[in-house]
Specification:
This is ATP sulfurylase 1, chloroplastic. By secondary structure, this protein is α/β, with parallel strands linked by helices. The chain is 31% helix and 27% strand. A hairpin with a 3-residue loop joins strand 8 and strand 9. It starts with a strand and ends in a 9-residue tail after the last helix.
Length: 201
């Protein structure tokens, strides 16, 4: 259960407990168990020896009251928003850093390819990550201002095709993506299926 100020927010059902095989997790993620990897030292090595999972039931939506709650839509709310925008395709990008030319190229090219495939109104869901994992990180509120400003410079209209769903993370929680080796980032499925982009069968 998640209780804050005597109010219940989340219940976990069908709890499953797993042994935290840290060495295997590190080896499979980074391809090495050599010491010195910053994220490993900060978030995995000193973590507990057990992992807990299960089904979550949201009793009361969590509000951060930081001026960004309007962006934090549930999967159901996002699906309604996709319908309101008449989206026939949704493509998602999850970023930790500000949007740069490489990101913009990928976004516009992905949209172009979807249009070429016959989709009429592909919608971009930008899933910014915020929080401190390195000394030069900035607060999520400033990161969101950067994303909003840069998004207006892209070649398609923000009010029709751009959506944000920010996620705050702490260094000890890690971001919702991992690396396959040293060159290929893997976007966690939570960005896509957890954001309502994929309908349950």
């Amino acid at each position: 259960m998640c209780i804050y100020n005597t109010e219940l927010y989340i219940c976990t059902c069908s709890i499953e407990i797993y042994k935290h095989n840290k060495e295997e997790r590190i080896a499979r993620t980074w391809g090495t168990i050599a010491p010195g990897l910053p994220y490993v030292e900060e978030a995995i090595t000193h973590a507990g020896n057990w992992l807990i999972g299960g089904d979550l039931e949201v009793i009361n939506p969590i509000k951060y009251d930081d001026g960004l709650d309007r962006f934090r839509l549930s999967p159901v709310q996002l699906r309604h928003e996709f319908e309101r925008r008449n989206a026939d395709a949704v493509f998602a990008f999850q970023l930790r850093n500000p949007v740069h030319n490489g990101h913009a190229l990928l976004m516009t090219d992905t949209r172009r390819r979807l249009l070429e495939m016959g989709y009429k109104n592909p919608v971009l869901l930008l899933h910014p990550l915020g929080g401190y994992t390195k000394a030069d990180d900035v607060p999520l509120s400033w990161r969101m201002k950067q994303h909003e400003k840069v998004s207006r410079l892209l070649t398609f209209a923000i009010d029709q095709t751009f959506m944000f769903k920010p996620k705050l993370h702490k260094a000890e929680e890690g971001a919702s993506w991992a690396r396959a080796g040293f060159e290929y980032p893997i976007l966690d499925t939570c960005c896509v299926s957890g954001s309502g982009c994929v309908k349950d069968k």
